[in-house]
Amino acid sequence: MRPLLKPLILFLCLAQPVAAQELRGHGGPVRAIAVAPDGTTAMTGSFDQSAILWSLSGGTAEAVLRFHEGAVNAVAAVPGLGFATGAEDGRIALWRGAAAAPAEVVEGHRGPVAALAVSADGRRIASASWDGTARVTTREGGAAVAFEGHQGPVNGVAFLPGGGLVTAGYDATLRIWPADAGAPRIVTLPAPLNGVVVAADGEIAVAAADGRLRLFGPDGEARGEVTVGETPLIALALSADGTTLAAGGLRGQVALIDRAARRIRATLVGPGLPVWSLAFLPDGKQILSGGADRLVRRWNAVTGEHIGTVVPRAGADVLAAFNGERGAQVFRACAACHTLTPSDGNRAGPTLHGIFGRRIATAPGYAYSEAFRTMDIVWTKETVAKLFEIGPNAYTPGTKMPEQTISSAEDRQALVDWLEKVTK
Questions:
Q1: Considering only CA atoms, which of 282, 115, 296 is closest in space to residue 196?
Q2: Comparing C-alpha atoms, which of 113, 188, 106 is closest to residue 153?
Q3: Are 273 and 357 within one domain?
Q4: Which residues contact 9 (CB under 8 A, 6 or more apart)?
Q5: What gap in Å lies between CA 424 and CA 414, rounded to an integer?
Q6: pTM for the whole thing?
Q7: Among 15, 179, 351, 386, which is least packed, fewest CB within 10 Å?
Q8: What is the widest separation between alpha-carbon atoms in the chain?
């Protein structure tokens, strides 16, 4: 090779554009991610009510899609079409390429859509909703099949290899529905469930609010358990080859789990903020994460290392100054969505600064649902306590809040007493 040719080739290689390692564009927490089967594009959904179609080779946004009225909670790749999105408005939109309007719209849910799954052939779409049901819609038409029985929000849904369905609910039950939509096998677990995936061999993995990942056979028999953390798991993904599970939680912990060995083989060390969504690239070598910092990050799915020059730093624990105070400990479950000071602003939910004495749906700069704007509630210690006594869905129908109750009257009192002190 000529002496000048080597430097020239090196220069040309270095000059090639490098894909952005962080996808920036959402104005709110990234609630959902899905990657196309060919790995060239991805779609994300956010609390900012938009979906974004990304080029993964260039790391750029190809289209910002605004159709839903409310947070986009779920995204799934649809073979032969593009992507599907499900949102707070109860609708499912099917998108072809970068078209500005959906190719199809599916309606039927009476509450927010929390999760989506698509059959391997792309013909059937399953949706889980906070209305307490799951539904399976066939794209060629015909009536949707409703799966009823959960006592509260359904947070996860997945297809079984034989055509059945699996649902995971806030009522702490895993339900395995046969292909003929008959009575399900019900498995009751110790904590609410926030997500479910199914491997090609039929093994089921569920993410729970007690920080544990549990595995079951297609018959519902327990097969194993992995402790990821002490706070709720809110994101779950499975690699295309079925070998690796990824589970993320409210405190930012993300574990890469060897499914066969039932052990954590790597940990993604991020900024310490909630991780709402995870998705593997088809080859299983990279994984995308989306969270409360509004970014989509890329990671090496083998080593767990962050890809790119920016190394995420763990955020400060804003509740560390209140160690030992029961109200602050109860509030930890709320800190993912709400801030306490005016300088921190709104997150998935409005800031709680100045909440007491404030009329519902009046925090500056927050996009409330229409249902909230018509309610006649003033936030006091009594009304906040009532919210958590009977649950957001019952007290404020149409809310964006995850369903959560505080059964202990002492804990509810500790929470509102502490909030009164720190939100003035």
A1: 115
A2: 113
A3: no
A4: none
A5: 16
A6: 0.78
A7: 15
A8: 81
